[in-house]
Amino acid sequence: MCMQVDASVGFEACENESCIATLAYTDSNLLKNYIMTPSHRFKLPGLLLAALIGIFLLQSCASTQSEETSIEVSLTSDGPYFAGANSFMNDFSVDLSALVSSKALQVEDIASVKLSKASIELPDGEELSFDQFNSASLQLVSDDAPMTSFAIVNPIPEGASGAIDMVVSESAEATDFFKQQSFTILLDLDFKEDDYRDQMSVTTRLTFNVEHK
Predict the structure, then answer these.
(1) In this structure, how many other beta carbons lie within 10 angstroms of the beta carbon of residue 162?
(2) Residue 164's pLDDT is what?
(3) What is the pTM of this model?
(4) How far apart are CA 25 and CA 46, in angstroms?
(5) Does domain 65-212 have CATH number 1.10.287?
(6) Which residue has the higher pLDDT, 175 or 51?
(7) Quick check: 42 pLDDT over 80?
(8) Rounded Cα–Cα distance for residues 58 and 21 (Å)
(9) Nearest in space to 212 (alpha carbons), one of 117, 116, 115, 102
């Protein structure tokens, strides 16, 4: 268990090794100044041992690290499409072993997952334009987590082409979704007019910040 100690109290106020170690970890100058005092030098061996052990343990308390991971998913929808919101979706299978580059994660390793970037792109070679849509919104949903809105672009800029970036919600947490085997990515496109094509697809690129042990 990680403990917190007010560094202003100094080593003299410590009653156990845990306190000594915490202060040494918080401010190494405290340890240096303390052991340079002649009356304290007889305590040096035990003090150093406690400090070293404690620093090692305390570092392990804060040993989470942050990495970015990106996914690219094709979202499809069957027509016909009527003016207003039409949903494009696909399921994403979570592979924790390949989620970050540093290690193969387990569910218990995940501290936090947040969406940091989102973009959508229309396929090449089709008569499809962003000018056909008023806005777009991105949600995630799964069997064990409620539908949550993660990003939006409203309005879609006139004449937009290629990929367009979405405005990502700062409060939306994706942690619960990545602790499941799969979840659904859902994109609502607001059509300006009816469109009677049989099927359409768009590509979404999502970048997540993963905090893990």
Answers:
(1) 9
(2) 97
(3) 0.71
(4) 16
(5) no
(6) 175
(7) no
(8) 8
(9) 102
